[in-house]
């Protein structure tokens, strides 16, 4: 991943919290060609010492290439947006702000017990805030019995982790404030606007 020094984010806490916050990832492995799937991938462990887990459908083309020890690239991506140079006080080049974490990992296939364990944790993660959550234990056993043989679960053991956050570091404060304001005016840009504000330590109640 291309990472100029000023945008590197390799702190353990940043990496771990980023993955938890942005779990819908791009899972890439090498089959007869490079193959990618978009799936939720969650961390298990703690900052600096974790593994990842997920599963895919057996009819997914990637399934045939899921082997113990095979390498995978997992891409987690945060909010991003085009930044128009027309927002700056002086003419400049437009750019794109974004954040991401790349994890290179070795695949370890799960057994049936591990698959069910990881499914319980995954469902718990996304159901717990629902008004009337339906946890793994609440799913009819007949449905589980039919579904489980159709998926393959796996662990991902990281051996290289890289983070990047290009959030208008080292720009003039006046221009950063304008970028924060402009992004904050559109629904799709609010999350990125807030990240740029925090990264550059801009007061939340600033006046443009």
Automatic annotation (TrEMBL):
Protein name, as recorded: FMN-binding negative transcriptional regulator
PANTHER family assigned: PROTEASE SYNTHASE AND SPORULATION PROTEIN PAI 2
InterPro entries the UniProt entry points to: Split_barrel_FMN-bd (IPR012349), TR_PAI2-type (IPR007396)
Database matches in Pfam families: FMN_bind_2
Organism (species): Christiangramia fulva
